[in-house]
Amino acid sequence: TPIALPSPMLTMARKMAHLGLRLWMMAWHRFEPRGRVKLDRPSLIVANHASHLDIAAIFCALPFDELMKVRTAAAKDVVFALPPAPLTILKFLFAVFPFERKNGSG
């Protein structure tokens, strides 16, 4: 099914949430994005998965205008097994969708 474009209000809410996320990453994890990212064509962004902060770091490195173009594949057996509240937050912040891992492991 096609992904519906978010409303302007949802877009603004996600940008505000990501501003808070960036400030937290900069204050607590000394996160310093370098360079510029422009998603002007289909792209695949891959993290080496050193920790669960990888997804947050990738999103924090993106310009606010690019946030709504990104979707995150998340392990169905781990992320989608979370209780509803944390899963809803992850869906809101990172537009997660379930990714079926082979044999249920990384």
Could you explain how this protein is built, in words?
There is one protein chain. The chain has 106 residues and is mainly α. It is built from three helices and two strands. It has helices at residues 8-29, 53-61, 84-94; strands at residues 72-75, 96-99. Strands 1-2 form a two-stranded parallel sheet. Helix 3 links the parallel strand 1 (72-75) and strand 2 (96-99). Helix 1 (8-29) crosses helix 2. The longest helix is centred in the N-terminal third of the chain and has 22 residues, at 8-29. The relative contact order is 0.15.
Topology record:
Layout: H1 8-29, H2 53-61, E1 72-75, H3 84-94, E2 96-99
Parallel strand pairs: 1-2
Short overview:
By secondary structure, this protein is mainly alpha-helical.
Key phrases:
single chain, 106 residues, mainly alpha, two-stranded parallel ribbon, 3 helices, 2 strands
Helix amount, in percent?
25-40%
Radius of gyration: 14 Å
Tell me about the largest β-sheet.
2 strands, parallel
Give, in spatial order, the strands making up the sheet with the most strands. Answer: 1-2
Which segments are poorly predicted (pLDDT under 50) over 5 or more consecutive residues?
Answer: none
